[in-house]
Amino acid sequence: MAGHTWQTWSPSWVDLETPNAARVYDYYLGGSHNFEADRRMARQAMEQWPDLPKIMQANRAFLRRSVHYLAAGGFTRFLDIGSGIPTLGPVHEVARELQPDARVVYVDRDPVAVAHSQLMLEEDLLSRVVQADLTEPDELLAQPDVAALLEPGEPVALLLVAVLHFVPDRLHPHALVARLRDALPPGSAMVLCHACREGRPDQVGPHQDIYARTRTPLTMRGREEIGRFFDGFRLIDPGLVYLTQWRPDTPEAVGPHPERLPGFVGVGLLP
């Protein structure tokens, strides 16, 4: 997106003085699609947890590796739910390195993230952006662009990367994932990344407190709870692991303390 100014990627109605989670995430990644209000919130959070940028960067690196893995296996359809703003190595760019005709539907409930994304991708004929809520799966699946992507014939890669920890237990996140799983064509896949309680238990309370002050409170779950999201899927090697441990580009990329980036990730395949 080099050369874009805020006028060309930000709708005129967006409040630039209110922090937005998707733009804060972009700031952690080192991107340019954020504003001072977003940077201020990010800096405040980093005072509490200095590793936050490393965690977000490891999350995006996992997304890249998993999409590349699936594209290498022949996947050409990707459904990215909770996508935020597709900056710095977005799904469509990574997939098309190996599958030039890869189709991607980005889904987010945040109207600000959706509006930014629609402007940025308006000339991309193979990408679609949909405003829908993971916690209302029937409405999400009924969206025309989503329904078209899920038509029988080819498997679909369902991406739930750093989104399920924003779904509280009272909304039954495992049932939501099961509903999405049942709508996938045979042979489909799910990519999952979820903040976990293991690794840095000292940060669970403070980090959840930070997000409790935003519109997107955080629920960090344990390994067993996260593993249950893969019910009905066959986890591929290396299974459910910390962010940097999933098929690293080099052994050194794992780092000496992968648990310091407390998120479990995995990729599962449907029969």
SSE topology sketch:
Layout: H1 6-9, H2 21-28, H3 36-48, H4 52-72, E1 77-81, H5 91-96, E2 103-108, H6 111-120, E3 127-131, H7 137-142, H8 144-149, E4 157-161, H9 173-183, E5 189-195, H10 201-212, H11 223-227, E6 234-235, E7 241-242, E8 263-269
Parallel strand pairs: 1-2, 1-4, 2-3, 4-5
Antiparallel strand pairs: 5-8, 6-8, 7-8
Helix pairs in contact: 2-3
Q: What can you see in these coordinates?
A:
The chain is built from 11 helices and 8 strands. The chain has 271 residues and is α/β, with parallel strands linked by helices. Helix 2 crosses helix 3 (36-48). Strands 1, 2, 3, 4, 5, 6, 7 and 8 form an 8-stranded mixed sheet that branches. The chain is globular and about 50 Å long. The model is unreliable at 1-9 (pLDDT under 50). It has a single domain, classed as Rossmann fold, CATH 3.40.50. 38% of the residues lie in helices and 14% in strands.
Count every helix, treating DSSP H or I runs of 4 or more residues as helices: 11
From the coordinates shown, what is the CATH architecture?
Answer: 3-Layer(aba) Sandwich
Estimated helix fraction: 25-40%
Top CATH class: Alpha Beta
Uncertain regions: pLDDT < 50 for 5+ in a row? 1-9
Question: Which percent band covers the strand fraction?
Answer: 5-15%
Total beta strand runs: 8
The largest pleated sheet is described as: 8 strands, mixed
Q: What order do the helices and strands follow?
A: HHHHEHEHEHHEHEHHEEE
Note the quaternary state here: single chain
CATH topology: Rossmann fold
Q: How big is the Rg?
A: 17 Å
Mean pLDDT: 86
Give the terminus-to-terminus CA distance: 38 Å
Number of domains: 1
Structural class: alpha/beta
CATH superfamily membership: Vaccinia Virus protein VP39
Question: Which word captures the global form?
Answer: globular
